[in-house]
Amino acid sequence: MGCQEDSLIGRVCELYEQISKLESLKPCKNVDMIFTQLVLTCMPPSPIDVTKLPKRVQDIRSKLIRLCGQAEGLLESHYSAILGSYDNPLDHLHIFPYYTNYLKLGLLEFTILSKHCTHVPSKIAFVGSGPLPFTSIVLASNHLPTTAFHNYDLDLLANSQAQRLVQSDPDLSKRMVFHTNDIFDVTSALKDYEVVYLAALVGMNKEEKSRVIDHLAKHMAPGAFLMLRSAHGARAFLYPVVDPCDLRGFEIMSVFHPTDEVINSVLIARKYPMPIHSLDQGLGSMILTNKCKCSEIEAFNPLNHGNMIEELAIEEQSS
What we know:
Structural class: alpha/beta
Number of strands: 11
Distance between the termini: 36 Å
CATH superfamily of the largest domain: Vaccinia Virus protein VP39
Order of helices and strands: HHHHEHEHHEEHEEEEEEE
Shape: globular
Number of helices: 8
Strand order of the largest sheet: 3-2-1-4-5-7-6-11-10
Strand content: 15-25%
CATH architecture of the largest domain: 3-Layer(aba) Sandwich
Number of domains: 2
Largest sheet: 9 strands, mixed
CATH class of the largest domain: Alpha Beta
């Protein structure tokens, strides 16, 4: 491990210690400052592979991701309450400090989806939409003006806050639907969606994320698209990583790693149109492994003409 990586890990661990000692993760000047320092530390492109870190650092990373998730939830709830106090909340979305990131991420994900989906989807599901469903709002307002968005979240309060943001808008109030459900209780309804988005913080570690993905693979419509968010390099200290080879039951289309202030990587996969039989498991079982060969190439970043992102091209190999 080089000096630069040692310095990065040392700084991340130092910030973790500060965060873990905070009395509350609710938004305030001190909390905001520490998390901003963490994001700025992890944002620059880095060759670090978090799966190869020492166990002590792996444990800190796991705890840090959960703390970041808690803080993000509290931040979103705080700003959703503020926005909900306006007569027309959608006119004030810019007050959220990371709103421009959502605009960029929405454009990026729409561009990626358009590359692979040949028609405008009529219904999209977003799993883990939270109190600030910015992805659904941005896509519905700016990119998919005829699509219905079904937002799923476990938290009734989060859904009621989210619904408050769109209820005064005559268009979005009709196209944005909110469901308070554990996604594991949603089965046949998943077949209604041509695209399913999975939020970065649904499944806070590899095992939890895999359970959700396997559930979606079982119940989504054949040929439907799954859009996932992951993290790359040092950004994996902030969010869980989705390994493309763990998407069992899906064909990976592409993986994008932004290098600007958009933190999350974006993966798009398509559920296999029909069961694929695995020879090593017997003809009666659906394939459970996604054997893939990955090669990195540079792709044009639709967000910024001067900034490149990496695309991971996945070649499917038959078992």
